[in-house]
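Batch manifest, entry 17 of 40.
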Amino acid sequence: MTSIRPSFVNHRGPMELNEKNSSVTNQTGTSSLARAEATPTIVREETESLTPPTPVARKDRIFSLDVIRGVALLGILLVNIENFAGPEALHDIPVGTPIAAFSGPHAPLHLFILMLKWIFFEGKMNFLFCMLFGASVVLMTTRAERRGTGQQIADIYLRRNLWLALFGLLHGIFIWSGDVLFDYGLVGVLMLFACRKLKARTLFITGTCISVPLVTIVLFFWLGSANDFNLSRQAAVADAQERAGQPLTPEQKQAQRDWTARVESQKITQQSIAASMSVAHETYVAGVIHRVEDYLGSRAAITHFTFATQDLGAMLIGMGLFKFGFLTAEQPYGTYIWTAALGFLVAAPMYVIGMWKAYISGFSVLSFDKWICLPYFFNREAAGLALLSIILLVVKSCVFRTFQSMLAAVGRTALSNYLLTSILCQFLFLWGPWKLYGKLEYYQYNYVVLVVWMINLVGSALWLRAFRFGPMEWVWRSLTYLKFQPMRINPSVPAGLTVGA
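Output type: structure tokens
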């Protein structure tokens, strides 16, 4: 089966989400929102009612959201690395790679790594990003409305998301085909603004209904999985009649031929691997031309509609969870403990059983559809909420504060780090002198991940000692607010104040 995307969702990318103006610090040391009308909102700023909208001040950021975003930014590379590092015949499963993953001395290790990735990372990082992106809509618009600038925020919001979509388009064409920013921007423009006033429960339930049953149905038809099940059933009936000596109709014979052709098309051969390697090593200009095709035509439109739909569900869930106070670590410890326990108790066995069933079948077409694709979005939400709860438990408990601060720094510069990661990986595997594409074993991918993580963590922390924003965050904010934003930190001005505002 062809790749569901360079990452199903391609493990969708990062967004700046802390459009918050005033916060209170709870006993955990985590910035949280004041409560009004039983939902977290922005503290009223009647004295600033005439102040024009500005980017969120450094002192007003919500620490928990920065940490979550930092985790998602780092974790997403663990799954995206497979698309950077070599060809695969299936989505984020190392079959069809130049160095066989499931034969040889490292096969058990590779299977173990695969299981861990799918339980804790596959789909969850995009889920976290989408939830945070949805939360940003509530943060940004509520802040403006509390300050009396609600009429202006619609224009700012529109520019913000249109620029994001343009960044994604440029990233997807000129750097890497797995971009997610384009779809985030489109969903933000078309859908989320109108949903910002809905109640928390409505947002959560609607998001879940979109994210699990609706997206599963859309995915099945988009991938052709529904046709696979139907065609295999017809071929099985025809085979049974043939064995019984009964004559077959022309339609049944055609079903047999079609199913045989479908199975044959998914077989891994040295020729198919060589063809994938050849495409990857085409010239840069040829690659750009091919990536442009990802945004043209009816097939591209259907593809982006599928991705946008799955993103929308998770974004609505994030809006609801923010209004519940879940994302800001305001819920009791028990809420997070029970969510984490139940989520992993449900999802982990399904992942292990499903992956094992697919593995022992040789990752056949039907086993992949049945055991991997069918429960994908249900497992994504269950395990994604569980992982989110664990992160927030760590934030609430104030353990590993130095490391949390480093993660928060990555989160504050997520857009810059996302684009930097794409450039670094493309340089390591295709553009640079090493050309490692297809030359590493599956477990060795993680060595590259660790190196990039160190660059993200150390580089972000050092950068934010001197600058208010990441470089791309500064560009994005300046374009959004139609004004160059102060970049360097002025030692004479308290952290968080906007110079010249």
